[in-house]
Amino acid sequence: MTSEKIRTYDELDVDEKEVIDSFRQMKLLYDHARFKYHRIQVEDLINDYETLIKLREEIQAKYFSIYEDLIKEELIEGELDASVWGITREHENETWGSELRLMSDIKINFDMAIKMIESGEAEQSIIDAENW
């Protein structure tokens, strides 16, 4: 082992600080691009959930409409049991809502991280930690 002391950022030479600063910038640029990429993926998934929920509502309305028409025209017999649909929809809404809230929270976290990088706050936090 070497007996060299670990130096803080303030104790580094100018060229060493420049290297550290460059690596920090590269890491922040990488994180910025990665967060934006994943935010787009999450936004796309959120849009898919919203489309799915709307489509499910449209399908149910169409189902009931067609079923009622077939009963009125005496093409089928039976009763329309909306309670089964209600239970199914309630379960779907709970599941999809939970998943949608999770993705929305993740998107908010990406938004905050991106904003911190763009404002310089993230870099300043790293610098502060290096000098501590």
Descriptive account of the structure:
The protein has 132 residues and is mostly helical. It is built from three helices and no strands. α1 (14-72) packs antiparallel against α2. The longest helix has 59 residues, at 14-72.
What secondary-structure arrangement, pairings included, does this model have?
Elements: H1 14-72, H2 82-119, H3 121-130
Helix pairs in contact: 1-2
Concise account of the structure shown:
The chain is mainly α. 81% of the residues lie in helices and 0% in strands. It has 3 helices and no strands.
Coarse shape: rod-shaped
pLDDT under 50 segments (min length 5)? Answer: none
Distance between the termini: 25 Å
Major β-sheet, in short? none
What is the percentage of strand-forming residues?
A: under 5%
Q: How many helices? A: 3
- By secondary-structure content and strand pairing, the structural class works out as mainly alpha
Number of strands: 0
The H-and-E topology, N to C, reads as HHH
Approximately how much helix is present in the residues?
Answer: over 70%
Mean pLDDT: 92
Q: Taking Cα atoms only, what radius of gyration do you get, to the nearest Å?
A: 28 Å
Q: What labels describe this entry?
A:
3 helices; 0% strand; mainly alpha; 132 residues; 81% helix
